[in-house]
TetR/AcrR family transcriptional regulator (Tianweitania sediminis), 235 residues
Amino acid sequence: MAIRRELETPKGLQRRRRTPSPAQVQRNIETRQKLIEAAAHVVGEHGYAGCSISRVTARAGVAHGAFYLHFKSQQDLFDVLLPEVSLGMLAAIAQAVRGAETLEDMERRGITANIDYLVKNPFAYRAMYEASHYAPKAFARHNEIIMQGYTRSFRRLLGDKAPDQSQIDELTAILVGARAYLYMRFSENGAEMKPLDPDLLDRYVSFVSAGMSEVLGVDAKARYQAFETARTKTG
């Protein structure tokens, strides 16, 4: 009669997970970034609905199974895609509006930098404007970052004349919505983006400037003491 023997690991000798080397950590970071960049381009070509894991791994040149070392699921990837994709765009917009002297100047600089980035990186447009349906968490985070940018700009330019946070939230929603439809109607060109017509851009900025002046009770073309003070401190 065979004797069944139980093999037990002696106490204190339990197998421990090996700490990855710095080189392995760097490779993992690079692979994850490859997957994100590949997903952005697949979404740009096929939309979120057509962004399968197999398409992403094929474009990234990564084994299918390696995907799951970095993301639990397709949705897990979608939930981080937009914030990653929009980093460059939001940085370009922030840099552009940093030198704005008036509300009108702020909006002109912002929309110009926005459309310039989308023309150069057309995949980012589809990643943004399909995200509300396919990646609501990522879309909410993206909008939160935009809101923070507008809040900083309003307060920097207007000081104590700046609207309260609820008004900033409302104005930001209006401005972002107006831009989105403007792009959809006049800049979409299949899978590519084209610049806005300069005359249309002027009309948009004039319309928005007049609206902000009326709603906020300020002159959107004027420089206020808050801006002059901020410039003096940083000059």
